[in-house]
## 1
Amino acid sequence: MSSVTVIGAGVVGLSVAHELAGSGHRVRVLADRPATASVSAVAAAIWFPHDVQRSAAVVDSSAVAYRRFRELAADPATGVHMRTGMVHVRRPDADLSWTRAVPDHEITPEGVRCTVPLIETGVYLSWLRDAVLAQGTPIRTHRVTSLGDVLPDTDAVVVAAGIGSAALLGDDEVYPIRGQVVRLANPGLTDWLTDEDNPDGLTYVVPRRDDVVCGGTGEVGDWNEVPDPRIEAAILRRVRALVPALEGQPVLSRAAGLRPARSTVRVERVPGHPGPVFACYGHGGAGVTLSWGDAARIAALVVS
Ligand SMILES: Cc1cc2nc3c(=O)[nH]c(=O)nc-3n(C[C@H](O)[C@H](O)[C@H](O)COP(=O)(O)OP(=O)(O)OC[C@H]3O[C@@H](n4cnc5c(N)ncnc54)[C@H](O)[C@@H]3O)c2cc1C
């Protein structure tokens, strides 16, 4: 057993903290924003490896997380539900490696119809934070400016700070992919859909208990976290074309967030520090999808 400091309280940092405490480590979390104010709260979120470089490790972590979320879906308090929907496929060379992780899927002429976890982040992130606190792990509001300030007080550090990880580790491979959503009243929809290669732009519709998350965008290198009304109007045109039942539904809320993208997701020990430092970031548009899998990988690395 050792003491571990996790930097970051988004879905990745909280999942890492949970798995480390479950492995018997003494954990503390430092974060300058709560999960509910991070990009993790902007995600709809459905389990799907969007905007992330696919690899065997990504598919494996997705599969681990799929199974974990399916277990969590048995408890409505978690905000996780198993939901059926359609991944529209428009390109013959589309990468369908992710279907290996999805037991219930069917390839159709339009794409892949499948059942995946829907994680209502507004509910889930609060549940996850409470689960971490219940393990005895403190979550402190604190901005870390240098790992050198943290390392003397702890046996190991995990950098799970999303887009903020770049500055902490001097990693110039990290970049934002901006995403904007608008949330409408739910007219009674249950099935979700994604249409990544829609010629009019990325489109998805994710019905939740109290709203429908409509998206989206993927603006590479754009740091603007403020929703843009012209982009919202275009999103509404696209989703209503695919799902006419959304016509006339009132806007309940809107948001924009920065997906923490990187050439590849980084889950490894980082050399060159006076103490053990581990990286867990760069999850792009799939941080929720990979969360439990990459948290388990970090827990295995910290032990070895
Ligand atoms: C519109 C949109 C839709 C999305 N939909 C999905 C989806 O359906 N499924 C899916 O899997 N993913 C989705 N994503 C992607 C997902 O939101 C991210 O991959 C995920 O939230 C990243 O989590 P994170 O914990 O790494 O980062 P964050 O949520 O950004 O958390 C980072 C944490 O680190 C802290 N931090 C940063 N720097 C410092 C510092 N210097 N000191 C202290 N603390 C620091 C922050 O305060 C915060 O607590 C979507 C994203 C967007 C924008």
Note: The first strand starts at residue 3 and ends at 7.
## 2
Amino acid sequence: MRDVRKSATSTANTLAFEPGHDTSFGSGLSHFRHGFNESGLFTDKKLAELIDSYPREYYMITTMSGAGERPEWRNGDFNGASGKFVLNAIRSGQLWLCLRRLDLVAPEIDTLVNDAFGEIEARNPELKTSRRRSSLLISSPGARVLYHSDIPMVALWHVRGRKRVWLYDADNPVHLPDETLEGVVLRETEEEIFYDPAWDAEAAAIDLEPGWALSWPQNAPHRVDNLDGLNVSITTDYYTPAAQRKYGVYYTNGLMRRRFGWDPKSTATEGARALAKCMAAVAMKKLGVHSQAERDMMQSFVLDLSKPGAIDELPQNEWRPILQV
Ligand SMILES: [Fe+2]
């Protein structure tokens, strides 16, 4: 990987981009430095306090299968553990914690992100972002995030530890068939999608160090390997007008295929037909046309309070839906 530290443009602002990567933010690959680490908000003590204060409906603690096992995410519960215990559990286990809705629960962190977006939009007046939602991710040194595709645009602001992000081509119909992306957009799956390790030869592998951020093309499949240390990052979902149109087109194409047996050929996001699909998507979402097929998030384990990092598996008849809002 090229060392962007030498080529990054440095300004009086807090962000430093690889050349051209300030204007590719919001559409293509963008790799840049940020200054979040100087805030003092991400020490063990601050993170433990934040975890202690987190409402149940806004966190997800997850474990993932090891190499060679059937890839799957499973959701759990803190089981009453303190923030300090949870951090130690993550440090010693195979866990991945997502603290959602920073805007409501940790506005001081959300402000860091919003200020950075303000700076990016000031550098690129054609860029307009909306519906920004940030979450804090805290994950184990050896944790992996399996191959998946996210619905919105994503910016990943890395704060602690090291991780390798593998990015695949969003427009490659082998890596991401239209029907698969429709299923993701319709929330039929928990975003796990078919992956062949042979595709790694065509992927971009980017090592994220503390203080570096990355954004990539909408829906580009990706997976993440933590390399070392407790990993702390902020992930921000956002939309641009083009990203909203792509969402609407795939939502409507997916419903047409599933409900009406049509085989939509066009994935164009410009023009009258695309606009009609976006309007149809809004209407069908409001009517709840597909809502019964959306996934239910089930709790299948709790943290083992006698051993940081271990989990207690729940028998399947004790699994229950996790309330998320
Ligand atoms: Fe993702």
Note: The chain has nine helices and 14 strands.
